[in-house]
């Protein structure tokens, strides 16, 4: 079973008096941690790290947006996975809407497949 870990990339304290005096959690700290996590068995971190999968989370609400986040842009790999939990809470049928918009065929959940089949039958009889 894959082991996922989510960390904040920064604590946003680096520009504060306390952060300058005591230090803060920053991007370099996250990169050092990510390199250690690979040896500890972590398979996925939500930020870029050598040899780990790259994941992204946060306000992913559109089909084209999601697609763009997992495809290459200007020859650079973006993310291996995206997390869309909040969008599924907002709209339980979101994956079906995304599939339709992107022209991807997906299996409908058994609980709602019957209305889909009936709708297709009605459309084909017209």
TrEMBL record:
One of its GO terms (molecular function) is NADP binding. It comes from the Eukaryota. Gene3D superfamilies: Aldolase class I. SUPFAM superfamilies: FMN-linked oxidoreductases. InterPro entries: Aldolase_TIM, YqjM-like. PANTHER family: INDOLEAMINE 2,3-DIOXYGENASE PYRROLE 2,3-DIOXYGENASE (AFU_ORTHOLOGUE AFUA_5G01450, NADPH DEHYDROGENASE C23G7.10C-RELATED. This is Uncharacterized protein. It comes from Cladophialophora psammophila CBS 110553. The lineage of its organism: Eukaryota, Fungi, Dikarya, Ascomycota, Pezizomycotina.
């Amino acid at each position: 079973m894959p082991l996922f870990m989510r960390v904040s990339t920064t604590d946003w304290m680096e520009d504060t008096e306390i952060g300058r005096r005591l230090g803060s959690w920053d991007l370099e700290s996250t990169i050092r941690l990510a390199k250690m996590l690979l040896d500890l068995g972590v398979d996925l971190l939500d930020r870029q790290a050598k040899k780990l999968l790259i994941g992204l989370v946060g306000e992913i609400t559109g089909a084209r947006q999601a697609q763009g986040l997992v495809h290459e842009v200007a020859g650079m790999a973006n993310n291996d996975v995206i997390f869309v939990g909040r969008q599924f809470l907002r709209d339980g049928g979101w994956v079906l809407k995304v599939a339709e918009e992107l022209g991807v065929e997906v299996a409908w959940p058994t609980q709602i497949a019957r209305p889909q089949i009936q709708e297709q039958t009605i459309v084909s009889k017209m």
